[in-house]
From TrEMBL:
This is Uncharacterized protein YuzE. InterPro entries: DUF2283. It comes from the Bacteria.
Length: 98
């Protein structure tokens, strides 16, 4: 029973990793990741970007909003310093988006 639950858990984690990789990009050369919250091209595009910087945290986060004020994407600059290595590994294995 315990092994069956672990197998289901592992399957769920693989599905989550696949979905995250589909909704996220990572450019190792630029050390930047982007999390798409409204698809790759939100209707109306990004109309405002808010830069979030905190001296206590490595990197920088940019919040992208659409014309209705909805958060549509998050860019993480300095991603290798702040994102979990397991996520970076999944994103790197997924390769760049075309």
């Amino acid at each position: 029973m315990r092994q069956a639950r672990r197998a289901v858990w592992l399957d769920n984690m693989r599905m989550i990793e696949r979905d995250v990789a589909m909704a996220t990009t990572f450019d190792a050369e630029a050390d930047a990741a982007y999390i798409y919250l409204a698809g790759e091209s939100p209707v109306g595009g990004v109309t405002r970007t808010v830069v979030v910087e905190d001296q206590r945290v490595a990197g920088m986060v940019n919040l992208d909003f659409d014309s209705d004020g909805r958060l549509v994407g998050v860019e993480v600059v300095g991603a290798m310093d702040v994102l979990p290595q397991s996520l970076l590994d999944v994103l790197s294995a997924a390769g760049p988006r075309k």
